Amino acid sequence: MSETQDNWTTAGDDGGEERRLFFARPWVFIRGVPSMKFLPPEGPPEVAFAGRSNVGKSSLINGIVGQKGLARTSNTPGRTQELNYFVPDGYSGEAGDLPPIALVDMPGYGYAQAPKEQVDAWTKLVFDYLRGRATLKRVFVLIDARHGIKKNDADVMTLLDKAAVSYQIVLTKADKISALALPKLEAATREAIRKRPAAFPEIIATSSEKGFGIEDVQAAIAFFADGRG
Fold first, then answer.
1. Is residue 162 in some structural domain?
2. What is the predicted pLDDT for the residue at 130?
């Protein structure tokens, strides 16, 4: 994580301790958004998690906030059907009492065990949100380390490039590939995004199961808390 991105640097220094305490506080689910008209008023900065169905978005969010049951996890692709908003507990939502940041768990794109009409509705919701949310500061595009970037991942990145929405690649399930394969995957992914104008160049490899890479994602999120980013 570069110094330009994160003032709450690594665990063990003052910045890392501040970040640890921030994410250790209770977080709560505040709203599920099935369509754009139900979006909350634009207030605190938002970071969103996008990825193919069953890529591990909910597990990663749970790991970031240290709460196993905050975001629902399932082995069934397409379980998340709305934009799900999570914020630190203790904020009223009134003017002047807004949370420093909101985490948004998005419906997975691609395959889902649901009727095509429903999947199309989720996909439209995702794309409309990505195009039109002024408080959206970064999208973490999750890529399964076992499979790499697929066409629908590239399509989402192209949309984000056109909309000038900053995004960062997070490799999930990185413990499922060999220690020799991971650096090669990271290099190939960096090359794939090198000319994409909205892509943040640093890639984060994570494992929700093993816990590695979580602090790096926390640091990337913390950069935008309270509008600091």
1. yes
2. 85
